[in-house]
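Lab intake sheet, docking and co-folding queue.

SAMPLE TYPE: protein with bound small molecule
LIGAND NAME: pyridoxal-5'-phosphate
LIGAND FORMAT: SMILES
REQUESTED OUTPUT: full 3D complex as structure tokens
PRIORITY: normal
SUBMITTED BY: R.K., bench team

The fields below were copied directly from the construct record.
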Amino acid sequence: MDPPGARLQARGTMAYERRNIADMHGYVPGKQLRGAETLKLNTNENPYPPAPAVLEALSSITGEQLRCYPPAAADDFREVAARLHSVAPDQVMAVNGGDELLRLAIATFVEPSRPIGVVEPSYSLYPVLAAAHGSPVVRAESDDDWGVPCDLAERMNAARVPLVFVVNPHAPSGKLTSVRTLDALARDLEGVLVVDEAYVDFVDPELAHDAVELTRAHDNVLILRTLSKGYGLAGLRFGYGIGAASLMAPMLWKTRDSYNVDAIAQRLACAALRDQAYARETWAKVRDERARLSAALAERGLSAPASQSNFLLAAARDAQRARALHAGLEERGILVRYFDAPRLDHRLRITVGTPEQDDRLLAAIDAIR
Ligand SMILES: Cc1ncc(COP(=O)(O)O)c(C=O)c1O
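RESULT FIELD (auto-filled):
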């Protein structure tokens, strides 16, 4: 008799996968080296911890709150977020990390096998989610300045794309596209425009950038926000979407998992958003350090374009030097991100750390010949 599982192994697990899943590659996250000495400047986390009020909310969680299911649509959180952005609660939905909103948007707005639009380069999860859905990807190269190409709407409409992802500030460059440009794009696009604002908290407040106003003017704009970066809560897995009520309703009431955000996360997320003063203080510190680090990198021949995010895309003289720096830093316990891709293979994406962390990075760069 066959040992248990032998028949399964003989057939291979491929036998059960859908064709497109068998053919695709999964998302490759930034490396996670263990050890207190490792300096992680590769996944754009906030170098500062969440607000003390978040940790107080965590320690006040009771057994009774865990025994029961959480509010299915995170009503308290939606009210807090709606107040913060001056929108109605039915324009907001809570998600288990911003990534969940990306997946939900595809499941809700894209017929299987219809294409998904992306600007290249950008967040490498978009094509992975498209492949999992069985959708081809229509790619439009960002302009020389990392901006959204001016004919994006025309090209996406010509390819009959029902959903386009635009990350703003752009990743991996940090370039900010203006609300005016996005407004014209939303007006001209026939499909849904997802404005992925994972890093928007780090935008200089003097620019008065607020894309939420687009959701009042256009019923096809979905804004993604996350607590992973600006609020120092990447470990919690909490994000939210903002859009016209008509756009949010099918995701909120049909395609969302029944209890997609847990009771602990809902409470902590409310506490984080309520303490805007604390969050703004960390954003200001990151912005100050971004300017210092950018200048210090430029002095070392590693210039980066102006970034409105919490990372810098530093260009080395060539791909060989970028690879040597990436490997040399890792040997010294410092992780930065290297993408072996067109336009990126001579660059390093470096998360802005604390001044002390960045001093360690700069000293290590100086030591790598
Ligand atoms: C551009 C972009 N969008 C969305 C996300 C999703 O973030 P999270 O799922 O942690 O909320 C990330 C995370 O790195 C990102 O870089």
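REVIEWER NOTE: Residues 249 and 284 are 35 Å apart (CA to CA).
SIGN-OFF: pending second check by T.M.
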